[in-house]
Specification:
Two copies of one chain form a homodimer. Chain A is built from eleven helices and 16 strands. By secondary structure, the first copy, chain A, is of the alpha/beta class. In chain A, the strands form two sheets. In chain A, strands 1, 10, 11, 12, 13, 14, 15 and 16 form an eight-stranded mixed beta sheet that branches. In chain A, β5, α7 and β6 form a beta-alpha-beta unit. At the A-B interface, α5, α7 and β10 of A face α5, α7 and β10 of B. Chains A, B: One of its GO terms (molecular function) is ornithine decarboxylase activity.
């Protein structure tokens, strides 16, 4: 395999995993396979932790719930952010301390709140009256933090208004939490997935600090700033080293909120994305018409078997092949399912070697986050993305 | 449960399943559950078969691969269209005759073609040179039909150019197939998912007939027209009775291709969608701001746990609740995952009862197709969509 380390090492945050490339080169795969380098996860954890310093890392389990990742992070002392009862059960089963797990989904089933409370989890996210009522009823006295809507930063994937409450309601929700016997300890927000530069946090932090000040004025003794995720992974555009990035973010946080509050950070993508590659295969290369400028390249993996983040071409993965010494030409990339929506990149075609053909291996870089867990149970009869941890 | 049969029976194609409503009303579900009425599938099969008359029905397994559906259709004499080796294995394991299975994915792994050939499957789709080479090598002498790109019809979900070849290459591909020792027996196309009126087929059939005539002129003794899918299900807009719809389509087909060619039809959605409902639950109702016109309603099922066809708000499901006697107001509908993309309907809000609240049951109508198989293996720790067949 022609491994083009040189193309990536300059910009990639930490050293790319030569273990991954060696493993992929030495093996054949009869179906698309995510290969995860667990030591690369550990290296990234240390790199982030060095920059986040006094903050607690709550790994966003949804990014990749592989058991080996959770186990390793438990051993390293990481905390966890869980989106569901299923993720809580997973973390607990692998030795996580319930006091180190936050239930960060603002949309929770009442019975799942009760389960979490009984399991010893004491901190919950909320952004609405009805959610506070459910928490008060099923986890009486629990700590809650209020998730805030913030204006879009310059993130590659700005978030919708799905999560959070507007500024006009934030303090009222804290009041309500207090009246319900809960402990409104702080606020949370999300700067946007894949926020590539630390400076992009400044405006968002200003917005949050303004609400924080309002809450203090209203008599709330806040002690927690949950800065969420947004820590970037390398997908081709240069990003800072994770330690530098995290340190700059923390500097901006401390400048606004002081040294006293506890800070939680929830890296997911930024912690595990670069620890995985997908070994895939080209199934077909074709042109639809003599006039076509682009070839169509069909892979054995698509939107419904692991590459869901290509929806709207949001995340642009990088590819390596055994033909990377050849000239390249523009390709529309598509998945293997009989589904016309299963097209990965069409608006912005991908440059791939001119000689690419059916049966060729293609390696998709930095796929450790948001791939395997998105995979469908068997759409079109294709099995879920296989995962191998090395 | 307040079952609003009256709202649906007028426009729905065949009588709605009172068995489904009775079963849902009589049971509690602790997670989102697709309930399928297998007798409703059989009724729809008979209704379609009556209209399709001389055509062979190849059920598009990808629409819903539930074992009980395949078993029932095998018993009824249906044929099957498979998208993958996995679907072929499923059909064979449930008693389907390999001579009744077409391998209709134009993008196939070489080893899967060989597997299908050895299993006795003798008809394959293709739309490209490299695919023909793979078929010739792994299924020598097999029948192939050339998938054509057709201009968009008025379908609710027109297809992309992902599948098919342009007119300029169609006959050349048939020539190549013949030269490779294959039997180029015909053509296939797809009129577009959810083509609500039979008249919408006319223009597409004209395009295909023009290529058919070119192929006959070039000396190809074509004997198969595969008209694909596109048979609609009821999602709120009136559709014709399936027998009438299918009969009108067949009349148009025979008018263009004569009485001699074998006709294959591949209904998926049109065969099983109306045989299923999803019993779901409201997790949270909230307003983000005092100024919001719409409430946000969060369900325990979303884009990544079964409702993938809400991407781009393409398929608009209908909902019933126990509060359908109340006034309604506009709602943005979202799924339960911590994923900002997991919003079902926002551009066109959904009217739901004003009193809707956390814990309420919500039934999603006509969900028998393209739901359970799209479900992720466990995104955010939520289990795949449960399926119960009654």
């Amino acid at each position: 395999m022609h491994v083009t380390h040189a193309d990536f090492s300059a910009a990639s945050a930490v050293v790319p995993s030569s273990r991954l490339d060696a493993f992929v080169a030495a093996n054949r795969f009869d179906k698309p396979t995510l290969v995860l380098d667990i030591d690369r996860v550990e290296a990234q954890y240390h790199a982030l932790a060095a920059g986040l310093s006094s903050a607690d890392i709550h790994y966003a389990v949804k990014a990749n719930p592989a058991r080996q990742i959770i186990e390793r992070l438990v051993a390293l002392g990481s905390h966890f952010d869980a989106a569901s009862r299923g993720e809580i059960e997973l973390c607990l089963s692998l030795g996580a301390d319930p006091a180190h797990i936050s239930f960060g989904n603002t949309v929770k089933r009442a019975s799942d709140i009760a389960f979490a409370h009984q399991a010893g989890i004491d901190i919950f996210a909320a952004d609405a009256e009805e959610e506070l009522e459910k928490i008060a009823e099923n986890a009486p006295g629990a700590q809650v933090y209020i998730r805030l809507i913030v204006d879009a930063s310059g993130a590659d994937w700005p978030l919708t208004r799905k999560f959070g409450t507007s500024r006009d309601k934030a303090v009222r929700l804290m009041n309500m939490a207090r009246d319900l016997g809960l402990a409104p300890v702080g606020v949370s927000f999300h700067v946007g997935s894949q926020t590539r530069k630390p400076e992009m946090w400044a405006d968002t932090l200003d917005q949050v600090a303004a609400i924080w000040a309002e809450a203090l004025d209203a008599g709330h003794d806040l002690s927690l700033v949950n800065i969420g995720g947004g820590f970037p992974a390398f997908y081709g555009d240069e990003i800072a080293h994770p330690t530098d990035y995290a340190a700059k973010v923390m500097e901006m946080v401390r400048a606004r909120f002081g040294d006293t509050p506890r800070v939680m950070a929830e890296p997911g993508r930024g912690l595990v994305a670069e620890a995985g590659v997908i070994a895939a295969e080209v199934l077909l290369v074709s042109r639809k018409s003599d006039d076509d400028l682009c070839r169509w390249v069909f892979l054995d993996i698509g939107k419904f078997s692991g590459l869901a983040e290509t929806i709207d071409e949001a995340i642009r993965y990088q590819f390596t092949t055994d033909r990377d010494h050849e000239d390249t030409g523009p390709c529309i990339l598509a998945g293997p399912s009989c589904d016309s929506a299963d097209v990965l990149y069409e608006k912005r075609p991908v440059a791939l070697p001119v000689g690419l053909k059916s049966g060729d291996r293609i390696v998709i870089r930095n796929c450790g986050a948001y791939t395997s867990s998105y995979s469908s149970v068997g759409f079109n009869g294709f099995p879920p993305l296989d995962v191998i941890v090395i």
